[in-house]
Amino acid sequence: MIERSKKIKQLPILAVAFDNSQSVQPYEASYNELTKALKNRFADDYQLEFWSFGSKVENTESFTGTDHRSDYGQILKTLKNNYLNKNIGALILFGDGIYNQGQDPENFASGLKFPVYAIGVGDTTRKTDASIRNVKTNKMAFLKNKFPVEIELKFLKLKNKIAYIDIENNNKSVYSSTVAITSDDDFKLEFANLEASEVGMQHYKIKIRPFDGEANLKNNEYEFVIQVMENKQKILMLSDGPHPDLGAIRTSLEELQNYEIKVLTGNNVPDSLSSYSLIVLNQLPSVKNVASKLLTKIKESRIPVLFLVGPNSMLAQLNSLDMGLRISTSSNTEEVQSAFDSNFSLFVLSDATKEIIESSPPLLSPFGNTELTPTMQNLAYQNIRNIKTNKTMMAFGADKGRKVGFVVGEGLWRWRLYDFQLNENHEAFDELIQKIIQYLALKENEDNFNVYYPALFQETDNIEFTAELYNDSYQLVNSPDVSLRIKNDSLKEFTYLFDRTDDYYRLNAGNLEPGDYTFDAETKLGNQRFTEKGNFSIVKNEIEIQNNQADFGVLFQLSQQSGGQFYPFKSYGTLLDDIKSNKQIAVQQFRQTLQTEWINLKLLFFLLILLLGVEWFYRKYWGIY
Question: Its domain of life (predicted)?
């Protein structure tokens, strides 16, 4: 073996992150000036790495100023993870301090292992302004129903003035109000109840009548769209008493707005069940409530049923219903997690949702073996102490012409909390619950071909669809092509073909211009032709124009909490001097020892061959043998 030692120098990393949103776009020249100065001053002393952030984070030097949102928290989180165990000296943060997406960036500042040197651009002067900061409303409403609209209003330097608020639907006034402004920095909430008078995508525009001296009139208007539907499906939830599992399911379904949910406890049962599309039974029949009359009504009605089975369920009574699942009776319970069955074909869950649900906290399930009828399919098996069993945890299917579902375990509410803790949203849990309810409540004649999509997109969103196609045996297939034709409100057409993914279809149509769109999806299976029609809207995303007043306070706090410093742009030369004089931003040196076998040294091998050849030649030449 031969051992060699090599001295390695590692330059400190100087990360430069710039706000690439619309509010910073006027300062492109300032950014270019700073970039040039950094390269001239530090190219030989530091490893410069540039990052762009706005609605997303990218490792790039290119400034466009086109992003519709600013997420300061995400850039700090990304850099913290990206430079873990690396020699990063400092972060130079270029922006106006206005963030309108993600978490408060100050939540991440104290945990950084490097100082933040912030450079502020923009106008911090408070100017006369009336603005609509945000509007909260339903995504869907139902014909002749009223829906709430919550309007967040901000007024600067308009004390003792009166603001006039108008709401229009298709250029027709549907609401007017006045707001008294009581201070020079006033925030108001305005609530309006509007009636959904027409079916389809309805456009609304909220306006604040302009004041004299306003510099920014773009934030005096706000547009939103809701989908008005003719009717909704009714879901009845029954339980012995209040339960967080029902609350979690109800909250997920309220996001869709096309379900009317009624929760009843105890022995309160409607006289008629015919108006309901689905009945959810939480641990009924139970030890305290056998609910024999209710169960008889349900069996006679043939309405789809979702059973939530838990420690209080009376298993003997449940088994006697003979509705697709039998569980051996026992008074004991055990904690179980889910293990999804890849052969399940009644509806499709994303891989991300499956991963999150499988790692979620365990449910409390009755101890005992399970037995499914052939018409039912396992969505998930019970995973006990990391061992997958053949016991059913979630199963769905049709029993004697009725759709039936089972969730064997109590504690679904924990899954919803875990999803938020992990991802800061409930998307995985909501997808699971919504797909379950959509499958059970959907009418049979609509089941063979389904297209799923949101009714409303932001202009920055990718327009995405998923589709499912079932054969006559109710098995998912994706062999035939599925085409999609989209028309905008100018009757311009866009034609697409779905991609096949596992057993279902997926389409990403990219970005489209704001406006109203209709679509037709079509496929053919055997001799049957299936079509699906729908509509959606794309609305402008103008949150960046709502507030043009720079917030250097945010940048100052980030700098102070991380051990850095804040500078207005005109003082960036001082920033460069301070970084240069910071002794903690230093080159790291270390030695690397390499061991190599002699036989792997090719140069030595050929040298030996050469010497042997020379020796052989001279021996032959001189006659030495």
Answer: Bacteria
- In sequence order, what E strands does 47-184 have? 47-53, 57-58, 88-95, 116-120, 129-137, 140-142, 146-156, 162-169, 172-180
Q: What is the DSSP letter of 5?
A: E
Indicate if 233-441 has the same CATH topology as 2-123+550-581. yes
What is the model's pLDDT at position 445? 42
In one-letter notation, the amino acid at residue 500 is R
pLDDT in tens, 532-551: 888 888 887 767 667 778 88
Q: What is the CATH number of domain 233-441?
A: 3.40.50.880
Q: How far apart are CA 231 and CA 242, in angstroms?
A: 28
CA dist 187 → 104, 154, 184, 253 (Å)? 20, 5, 10, 32
Counting residues of the chain whose pLDDT is more than 90, the rounded percentage is 43
Q: Which pLDDT belongs to residue 231? A: 67
Q: How many CB atoms sit inside 10 A of residue 272's CB? A: 9
Domain topology for 129-229: Immunoglobulin-like (2.60.40)
Residue with tokens 């040039």, as numbered in its chain:
36
pTM (predicted TM-score): 0.55
For residue 123, what pLDDT is reported?
Answer: 85
- With beta carbons less than 8 A apart as the criterion, state whether 404 and 412 touch: no
The number of beta carbons lying within 10 Å of the beta carbon of residue 383 is 18
Q: What is the mean predicted confidence (pLDDT) over 25-35?
A: 93
